[in-house]
Specification:
Elements (H helix, E strand, L loop, with lengths): L1 H19 L10 H17 L3 H12 L2 H39 L1 H4 L1
């Protein structure tokens, strides 16, 4: 008995809900054409074999967090190695000068 009473109310409610639904906004003129044009431009840009496109892709790849961290670590390691080599060369030169100063102090100068 309850179903018979509720069914007309449900139909009225459904009709009201459909009436209250806002109308979809209209798209601007030539919207679809503009979308396809942007898609074509993006595809043409991604397939370009130019130097600038290649460097952009390389920069995008390197700027990902994982590769950026690996790059920073590699640069740090190269700096440590270069510093160690430079310090070793300077230490050898200083040791050579001191040895010569001790062995033959007047002849070197």
């Amino acid at each position: 008995m309850k179903n018979e009473i509720l069914e007309p109310d449900e139909a009225k409610l459904t009709a009201l809900l459909h009436e209250c639904r806002p109308a979809a906004p209209s798209l601007p003129p030539r919207f679809e054409h503009a979308v396809w044009r942007r898609i074509e431009r993006a595809e043409a840009g991604s397939h370009a074999g130019s130097w600038l496109g290649w460097t952009d892709r390389l920069a995008d790849w390197l700027l990902r967090p994982r590769w950026a961290l690996i790059g920073i670590a590699a640069l740090f390691l190269m700096g440590v190695v270069a510093g160690a080599l430079s310090a070793t060369t300077a230490a050898k030169a200083t040791a050579r000068e001191r040895y010569l100063a001790v062995v033959a102090p007047n002849q070197v100068r």
